[in-house]
Design brief:
The chain has 369 residues and is mainly alpha-helical. It has twelve helices and four strands.
Length: 369
């Protein structure tokens, strides 16, 4: 089905991604890098230790993509092998997770709601199952609490009073599943705080897998979650997808414009932000007038929310994904002939996928302070 050249190309990308995530893992887990000084330079010892993260994380992504691939083949839909995208930026002094993910390119027309559903749901379900087991192993086999002193020996110093004001704090935001597993599987004496989870390879890999699972299961457009909604609600996908996208971007941008900002600042921010919202609605299928109306409405509601509840703030990191979805992918789904409903088994799986989205989604997945 695939030529030796294709296997070679995709295999090389996979290996490069595995190496890149191992290097990135060493930076997160142990503070070791190829670009470090004598003390922080990565060694083979730390490289191999970091494969606990990269093998787990890339293994979950691999299973996710194989779910898509196997069901594409099963449904006789031509598609590419998974493209794994390596993305390690340590040579620029920028920390990353080593990859931008993986994608499969469809090569033939799909004119079946069932096929879209099967191919779309297979990936996140398969990846979620493995992510659940990786996290379970990580929570059940937490190292001794003193493990953190190997990473941060300064914590053991009784005179240590924390980092200075110039230190950038970082922690992972919780999601419902991670919290539930923490409460039921982890030893409270060994469980790290969310700012230190990045030093635990299986927990960090599993957390990132849940993040990507939730991202893929957003019920919008041609994302995996969009395929699920397209199957479950054959006549209402367009409205559900657009509504979900508007809610997503409305939450993300809370705080971008505020009545408590300087008026000169607002004179610049408001038109720029309205332009951004309009661009994000580019592939919504709406008329220009409706795009303008929705952009103005989103900004007005966000402005009012901050006026009445100044402490509320969205997650601006989601705005980047909103731009990718709205400007590049779009909120619409390719149409198929007819409105034949899915069978009961597939409907149950579809609702399970939506529950998984709720369990995995974190309103603020990565928090900087």
């Amino acid at each position: 089905m695939y030529s030796p050249k294709e296997y070679l190309r995709h295999g090389v990308l996979f290996i490069l991604t595995l190496i890149a995530t191992t290097l990135a893992g060493s930076e997160w887990l142990y503070g070791k890098s190829l670009m470090g000084d004598e003390e922080t330079m990565i060694t083979w010892e730390y490289f191999w230790k970091s494969t606990a993260f990269s093998f787990s994380f890339i293994g979950i992504l691999f299973v996710h993509e194989m779910g898509h691939l196997i069901y594409s083949i099963k449904n006789k839909v031509k598609c590419s092998l998974p493209y794994f995208i390596p993305a390690w930026f340590g040579f620029l002094g920028v920390i990353s997770i080593g990859t931008l993910g993986a994608v499969i390119r469809m090569k033939s027309l799909v004119n079946s709601r069932r096929k879209f559903f099967d191919i779309g749901i297979a990936g996140p379900l398969a990846g979620f199952v493995l992510a659940f087991f990786v996290l379970s192993y990580g929570f059940i086999n937490l190292p001794e609490a003193s493990y953190i002193y190997e990473i941060h020996p300064e914590y053991a110093d009784p005179d240590f009073e924390g980092y200075g004001d110039d230190h950038i704090g970082f922690e992972l935001g919780n999601n419902l599943l991670f919290w539930l597993m923490t409460e039921t599987l982890a030893d409270p004496e060994r469980m790290p705080v969310m700012s230190e989870v990045i030093h635990y390879p299986f927990l960090f890999a599993g957390y990132l897998a849940l993040f990507f699972t939730a991202l893929n299961l957003l019920p919008i457009g041609q994302l995996d979650g969009g395929h699920v909604v397209f199957g479950l609600f054959p006549r209402r996908h367009k409205e559900i997808s657009l509504a979900a996208f508007i809610l997503f971007i409305s939450y993300a941008g809370i705080g971008i414009i505020s009545p408590f900002m300087d008026s000169n600042d607002l004179l610049i921010r408001i038109p720029l932000y309205l332009g951004f919202l309009y661009i994000c609605l580019h592939k919504s299928g709406l008329t220009v007038q409706n795009k303008i109306t929705i952009a103005l409405s989103i900004a007005a509601v966000q402005y009012a929310i901050v006026f009445f509840r100044p402490e509320l703030e969205g997650y601006q990191g989601w705005l980047f994904f909103a731009f990718l979805i709205g400007r590049i992918m779009g909120t619409k789904h390719p149409e198929v002939t007819g409105f034949k409903e899915l069978d009961k088994k597939r409907k149950v799986l579809g609702w399970i996928a939506l529950v998984i989205f709720i369990l995995c989604f974190s309103p603020k997945p990565f928090i900087f302070s």
